[in-house]
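Predict the 3D structure for this chain.
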Amino acid sequence: MSEYRMDTQCIHAGYHPGNGEPRVMPIVQSTTFRYETSEAMGRLFDLEDPGFFYTRLGNPTLDAVEQKIAALEGGVGAMLTSSGQAASMLAVLNICHAGSHVVSSSAIYGGTFNLFYKTLHEMGISCTFVAPGCSQEELEAAFCENTRCVFAETLANPSLVVTDLELFAKVAHAHGVPLIVDNTFPTPMNCHPLSFGADIVTHSTTKYMDGHAVQVGGCIVDGGTFDWNNGKFPMLTEPDESYHGLSYTKQFGKAAYITKARTHLMRDMGAQASPMNAFLLNLGLETLALRMERHCFNAQKVAEYLQNHEKISWINYPGLPGNPYYELAKKYMPNGTCGVISFGIKGGREAAMRFMDSLKLASVVTHVADLRTCVLHPASTTHRQMTEEQLKEAGISSDLIRMSVGIENIADILEDIEQALQKA
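Done. Predicted structure below.
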C-alpha cells in the first residue's frame, strides 16, 4: 500500500479482502477466538506467535484500522485506545514510571494538562511545562536527569499554537529521550510529525479521523526509529518477567514500543476500543482526505471574514498572513492546518456568550472537529480547572471562542455568524 497516495490509503490501507470475502471491513464482534490446541493458545500468550485470542489485546477489526492509521502516519505499528485521553496516558506510561519526569508544551488540551499536572503527578511522574515558543536554551533548561520524554501538540487545542517540531525533536534527542506528538488537529492529511523528528504520535480519533461525532477513541502510533538502547528505558530493553524474561527490543526490534504498549499496558489497564467503534472510525477515515480539504477551505474563509469584521477584537488562525505561527504552519502543514479557529468579540465574555447563544446553524457543544460547525468557550468548559496563570500560559483568554468550522456550505456558515454577531 505504501506506493499509493494518502487519499487512496485512507480508503484501502489496512484491510485487503481475499476472493469471496467482504469488500467492506467486517465488524468482528467477538471477545474471544477459538484454537484447536492448548499449545497454540499458549504460544500466543507467550508472544511467540501472532494472532488474536482476546479482544482486549487484539481483534481483526481493530487490527485493520490500526494498520491503516500506521500507514497514514508512516509508523511501524499502531494501537487503538478507548479515548484520546487513554492514548496520551498510555503513550507516556509506556516509558515512564514513579520517579520519571516529562517535559511538555504548556499549550495543550485541558484534559491532557490535567493528566500531567494532577494524575501523573499523583503517580510519582513530575512534569515541567514550557512555553511552546520557547528558545532552544529555555527548552534545554527544562530537562532533568530523570526526564524520559517530551510531549507537544502539532497544533494546540484550542490556542492553535504551532509547535516547532524539529526544535523539540532536536533537543529531546540530544537528551536521549523521544518526542511524543499529539497530531489530532492536523491529522496525517496535513502533517506528518514523524517526518520532522517525532518518535511517537497520538490521536484523539474522536475528532477529525471519525469526523461524525459517533465514536470516542484514541490511537498511538510508533515511528519505529528511536533507539531505546541508551540505558534510560530498561522496561523495553531488560527482561520482562511477566513474559518469562522477554526483551521487547530484542524480540520485536523497531516495533518494541508499540508491542509493549499492547502486551503490557493494554493487558493490565484494558483501555481498549470496541470493534464497533473501530468500524465507525474506519468509515470516517475513508473520507478523511475529502473532509479535511473542505474543513480547511471553510475555516480560511471564516477567518478572513472575521479578520475584517468590526465586532471582532482579535482572530487567531495560522492560515492568515501575519499570524505569529503563519510561517511555521507553512513549514509543517503546507496543505492547511485544520478547521478550528479562535477569536474574541468586542465586549468580552458577555458578548461572547450572546454570540454563541444566537447561533442557529452552529451548535454549542463540548466537542470539536466533526463535519458540523460548533462553538465552545474553553475557559469555562474544557479548561475550566486551570488557574488564570495556567490559562494565560496555555494561550486561552477569558473571551476566547473556539469555533470548529464544519463542511456545510460556506455561505450558510457566514450568514449564521453574521446574524449572531449582530446580537452580540
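The chain has a mean pLDDT of 94.
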